[in-house]
Design a protein that fits this description.
By secondary structure, the chain is mainly α. Helix content is 71%, strand content 0%. It has one domain. Helix 3 crosses helix 5. The longest helix has 34 residues.
């Protein structure tokens, strides 16, 4: 029996709604997560997670995109132990460079939002970088002071950026581009003019990280929390 538009459902409709409710219970949490608002970046811990994840993604994406671009039979290449080892070395070797890219981008956004105290923001970011670097053991095939050098590299870049006007994000990608390229796991004879391809890949992923940061960051709260890291204990 049909009832008014907002009255009781017909029996068939009740069956459909019941089945829909049962199916909803089976929706994986990862799918439901697609509809959740992303976590805010408003604390040092959240910023550390962002810096780490974005730097790792930028580097890995660039390493593998370059391999696909250069090697014809890249699917077979990716299965080879020699390439896998070289790619692993390239990921870790270029991670500090990627971390520097993302850190300078974050500093630029915060400077625009918070005013002119670039030195204190840079100091707070340096502490976040040290915490990120402390998360990992020394990568194989690298010296014992790998993470100390990585932290110092990013700190120098932040200090340099803090002492100059902010620059567009796409210009940041050119920093250390040749060094990044030289660590990629492709034979020298196959590289050709690939530095431009690599630079464009890094630039694209850094711009993507910038868009993500703008969506998720709470600049005012984050700046205050970074300032707290610089306060005397």
């Amino acid at each position: 029996m049909r009832v008014g538009k907002f009255g009781r459902c017909r029996p068939r409709m009740r069956v459909i709604l019941s089945a829909a409710a049962e199916n909803a219970k089976r929706v994986p949490a990862v799918v439901l997560g697609l509809f959740r608002k992303p976590d805010l970046i408003d604390t040092p811990l959240a910023l550390c997670d962002f810096l780490d994840a974005q730097a790792a993604f930028l580097v890995q994406k660039t390493v593998y995109e370059h391999a696909r671009h250069t090697a014809g039979a890249w699917r077979q290449l990716f299965q080879e132990k020699e390439f896998q080892d070289a790619a692993e070395r390239a990921r870790w070797g270029n991670y500090p460079i990627g971390l520097g890219h993302v850190a300078e981008m974050v500093l630029s956004v915060l400077r625009r939002a918070d005013g002119t105290d670039a030195d204190r923001l840079a100091t707070g970011l340096e502490e976040c970088i040290r915490r990120v670097c402390a998360r990992y053991p020394k990568p194989d095939a690298y010296p014992e002071d790998f993470w100390q050098d990585a932290s110092a590299l990013v700190a120098r870049r932040l200090r340099s950026a803090a002492s100059a006007p902010t620059r567009p994000v796409h210009e940041m990608a050119g920093e250390s581009g040749r060094e990044f390229f030289e660590r990629l796991p492709i034979h020298q004879a196959l590289r050709g003019n690939d530095p431009d391809y690599v630079l464009n890949t890094v630039r694209s992923n850094l711009l993507q990280a910038h868009d993500t940061f703008l969506r998720r960051a709470e600049p005012a709260a984050l700046a205050v929390s970074l300032y707290s890291l610089t306060a005397p204990s």
